Amino acid sequence: MENIKLIIWDLDDTLWKGTLSEGSIRITDKRIDLIKNLSKKGIMNAIASKNDFNNAKKELENIGIWKYFIFPHISWEPKGQMIKNIINNTQLRQTNVLFIDDNHLNREEVAFYNPNVNVVGPEFIQKIKSHPAFIGKNDSELTRLKQYKILEKKNKAQMNYSDNEEFLKQSKIKIMIQYDCLDNINRIHELINRTNQLNYTKNRITLEKLSVLLKDNSYINFIIKVTDKYGDYGIAGFVSLKKEENYLEHFIFSCRILNLGVENYIYKSLNYPKIEIIEEVATPLSKSKNVYWIKQEIKKKKNLHNKTELSKKQLSILIKGGCDLEQMDHYLYQRNLKILREFNSVLENNHPIHREHTSFIINSQILSKNQKNAMISNIPFLDQMNFETNIFDLNSYDILVYSVLMDYTQEMYQSKKNEIKIAYGGYTNIISEDPDEFESRFRNAKISGMDKNFHNFFKENFEYIGLISVSEFKKNLEYIVDKIGGKPIIFINGSEVHPPSSNKVETNSLNRHIEMNNCLDEFIKSHKNCYLLDVRKIVKQEDILDNIRHYKRRVYLKMAVELKFLITQIIGTKKKDRESNNLKKNIAALKLNLKAKLSTLINIIRRIFKKKKKISEEVKTL
């Protein structure tokens, strides 16, 4: 039996003597003290009991120990699923969980569905106090219990939505249309030129041309502001409709409102005007989509942000990953949490780019300025942003949150001239692609520079390597961790579900995700200050959208809750380290002080003895 971090208790004839539904029950003071002492060691207690929830809760409250239990599952459901749900909620390994039940059939069921859980009968309880698997750590302030209570509260309030539309409905999404576009021209320009997944027309224009458009009376121009019960998204969309032709010149929404349904709500409210959609877009427009969960309001309400504090001092986190993480970003709002973002973007030639692959992070450090400029001038899917990151600016953030999904996905190409490696695309070798089809694909997407001439250049100067190897991925992570010198990193891994059947390119992506996730698990285990936001425990098959990396809205809320929990853990660890260091310094200072005083005392005693000896000699002389 490994170190136990969670004990899941049956109630009747296990935690207490007797059956609650049949009359009185009895629990000893020793059992009550055991629950409390386990909590003070950082070992959590949960409940899996076939009972009436309210009656059991009332009894445990009367005893005075209800507050010591996390994720209580008290219902008439099968216990195998109960235990699985508790373990998923606590995000622990099965080997670190102990289940205690007097009924051997319950124990067998739990063991069948949770093969690595430690399953015992009530006779084992008396061994817990002296067993080496229950040593735990000193946590007299119940810090770990408090952290799990936060996670439990979030789960109850925000995660119990089996249907995505049910989740969206309870989110209380509201939009407000505003026509004061000139006052917000910079934000609109940013949306036009930096947004891709929900930019349906992809008509990039300069700030000067945008100013002319916003003053043109032949267009209806407006911005969309969005709020929900979790917070304010701000200006999250822009629409420009040419009145006479009833044609959408611009129809753009920020990634932060991806999967809320706002784009289809607006499209319907405009009575489905004509639009030339430039693929690819994350959410198709549909005339049959009924977005009943969104309400339109006239007057903007006050800031809806939840002002729960993580700490008294403002904490800065740097999030690096795909722009889909903007959905998680919204739910992260805390008054004392500052968020820095490095998401994928769009180049001037209309080409979307990712810059989070570990190879780009490494290249930002090891390539010379001339090497970077040479690649940017010759390769139309690169620009300066590919070689820029704040990861190594250690004064700019406290915690790094890093999604490594592009290492799971993008193909590697190596220069024949200097062996520099770059990442691009995903599960496709563009060198082997037919040049005419290559040019046609990018021309249809309004992306310039990606033509047959470039294809020939790239084929002559680069060779295809394939997906980054596990060993090189690990080597790159070692480099990053070493360079940032102990700064905490929360990695975001990949889901382990099947890709959608419509996505033929990613047919083998599940196996790739499993392979890379295993590598990341091993890396995190062997490195201090590395943590994991494990989406495997969050993303289910029904949560996948157009590919294995894009999820339904509720998933990003769950990810945000888990990220807050991890941040709280890191803050607690750092606080304990500081307290430990301060204690060591105080002890060292006390030792020095005592040593100095002891030295002074010894000198005084020596002087006394010398003086006494001198007096004695003088007396003898007399």
TrEMBL record:
It holds the Pfam family Hydrolase_3. It comes from the Archaea. Transmembrane segments: none annotated. Coiled coil: none annotated. This is HAD-IIIC family phosphatase.
